[in-house]
């Protein structure tokens, strides 16, 4: 019936916690166990930008990450520099939780991709919204810039300071506030780690409506602030739909309590939407109310080889038709990606070598119905030549092994050399054309040009590697990739956001009138611009 | 196996097009065939509020609807009154589509519930966003107030003028712009009628992600502007999740083109969200891009009798577990509602008399799987006494007949006397307590107190009738109902919005900080306040 739809070789299994959306590993933070050192006389007073000593923010053993202010053409805005008196004031607000330990700060100043680095000298760890409000009220008055930080797993440099912004960590705001066992509504503080929330709701018969590789580190507040997409988007949709309410502290310390646990609420403007995806530039999310779907009783994953991209698209159409409401993920990767995970991570492919691979997940309430639907789909896909080989898994370990082939691509890429990363939304039909086009354009300049991603959502992760950073290769990529995307009316950031690194590409996906309105909203909500400065929006002329 | 789960009596079938969310009929507009009369010398010049002659806005044959400015304590704001010169200017922008016909205006000045009435003397019918932009630019400069109007099927007086606002109708903006047959993304003008869009996408294998009784009249732009909920919310979620993009004309005539057809786009703030549910007070939606789900291959409706509200809740839990991903609606109504539709509309109940009734809909991709799931659920529900009687329909005509029992309740109510309407979000467990509580509180003051609604979404439609309008009954209801709702942290408007009639109840569901921010957003986007004035937000002190 289903020739070759069993693993051809034993699948290697591995523990790979906490990989990011694009797959590379992120170490779980250990801030909670650190004790802040006594305050030292390091503070500069007034508006003079502090000078960062390189050594102070270089983690032992790691290669030094260039300071953002040195690598990028960015100028410090005239915020106050935190003084001794400021630290003393913070100490009064959150006694014992004002962190100036250089090691902790070194880790918090650098993004996990190790591409941008700030030189903040203080990290605050509030436990409650009231403490956040108190801190922001103080910073607003003193004109101190603030960098809200969740799990620091962002892809675009949005979660670390650019200069000496005060780091406001949500790490200690990690309490579940309530969970409703009939409706599946979870209300929790912003610093709850996604994976811990998943375990919490799964024990109660539900799942989180989002899942991403970084789940072991990322905070739900950061997920909402960046409008994280991830692996369940195809089935459960955007956070704009699943987030029911937010508590947000505004730049001036006002607490905006819109923490509704109701599915429907049409009383006035839906203010929470403003903060979903605003990357901490309009307010600091302190608590989240979110709708959790019931935990599916049956999950299947099929990993299939396709002879071409046209077949990847046709397979998607076919499985949408035959799997219907149980389809929960449709991911694709090209042969180069498979080479990367086999070569660098020693994973084993369960199927014959193919130009493309797709990973299909089903989630449903009745195993035998799901199996029947999946088998019918697989038979049709094989019979019609859309798929040349494949394997199906239903038990947890094998599911994870198959998922790893897709999810660890980014980790494998980081072993391949310097990586140029693009996260694009494109019309599905032409989504892969950019990859083949770039291979021709770049020729031997690039070591590898690979494409993979959430095909079901029209989301391509395009990655280019070279032995080392090359300015001429970057010039060949940008603005070419952005212009190509703009011509297709695509998005230059499908799910990663803009943060610090992509903010100047905004105009490729949004018209001038939209940019103007965004700047006006920023000015309205944060007139002094203290919240996560240098992020999301391009600097104003 | 399933005793009595067949219709006990032949179901009466009826054609009931265009009933509103709460069920009463709305006549399809015929503006498209009207020819505007030549301009007459009726206009007042300057800021003096025009005097409305009652006769001019009273439809022939209908009882007169009191002018809003006479029934409610509302003062005209100092907008200019449209002059002859203004009409001439509009005529230059949209030749032949400046309507001053008194009959057309009479219909457009009154809401379909016939509870509020404005006295606008001009209705504009642009065909393009550019025309809307031109009109708004002009009105902004001239300080003329504008009332955007879609199908005029709103429940809270948001779609008709309060005074002499210029009515800006989207009726002629009714073109589909594009439809993608693989992704199901529909892009269309704001004036497309929901039912016509449904037919359009159904012919292509998709459905609209929303459905409501008013579908025969309501415009998709109005649906988005009011964040319409309706019958498919349980399955496909909020428009905040399914709307992919919007084109909006701002108060000053700026065209904001965020008409993305992409499922994922994290480039900057998600501006479209601001306009979803803002009831035309922040901008005029001129085009919509929306994600349509695949058309289900199998649809079943079960109509069941339950012995008590506790059983209604348990039946919901049971069916969520056993129907899982195919559950697409869970509606309930009490015995009084059944009495109303039988008595006033002569519908026939297909099941034995019960204290409560539930309507369960499944939508799936495989008929035999869905039938098996549904049968298993029904067996369990009957065996455990949660359900005492029931019927199941699979063919279109019977489906509609069963749905009518639920959807025509509001129409039946309107035959019962004067109706006091509340649309509340409440925690599901205590949702019906308010109905029983009110029956005790009101005693013989009320003719009938009924409860029904979208239980799956925690949305109660509470309706109270009396022989005629009674001030003392109103005083017994308000603010009691709002305070009761606020104590439960519910919403005083789950899906109908605030419009003109509920705007002063906003503070029962939103804190002062949220109200302030809403006012600030209004001031930012519409500094002169010309867009749909007197709506959504309470008048500022």
Walkthrough of the structure:
The structure is a homodimer of 541-residue chains. With 541 residues, the first copy, chain A, is α+β, with helices and mostly antiparallel strands. The first copy, chain A, has 18 helices and 16 strands. In chain A, helix 10 runs antiparallel to helix 12 (367-383). Chain A has helices at residues 68-71, 84-93, 102-109, 129-142, 194-202, 220-225, 233-236, 239-242, 272-275, 309-323, 335-345, 367-383, 396-407, 409-414, 433-442, 471-477, 480-487, 512-525; strands at residues 98-99, 123-124, 146-149, 166-169, 176-179, 185-189, 243-249, 255-258, 284-291, 298-306, 327-334, 356-364, 389-393, 418-425, 448-454, 459-466. In chain A, 30% of the residues lie in helices and 17% in strands. Chain A folds into 4 domains: 68-169, Uridine Diphospho-n-acetylenolpyruvylglucosamine Reductase, domain 2 (2-Layer Sandwich); 176-291, Uridine Diphospho-n-acetylenolpyruvylglucosamine Reductase, domain 3; 297-413, Alpha-Beta Plaits (2-Layer Sandwich); 417-499, Alpha-Beta Plaits. Mean pLDDT of chain A is 88; it is low at 1-61. The radius of gyration of chain A is 23 Å and the shape is globular. At the A-B interface, helix 8, strand 8, helix 10, helix 12 and helix 18 of A face helix 8, strand 8, helix 10, helix 12 and helix 18 of B.
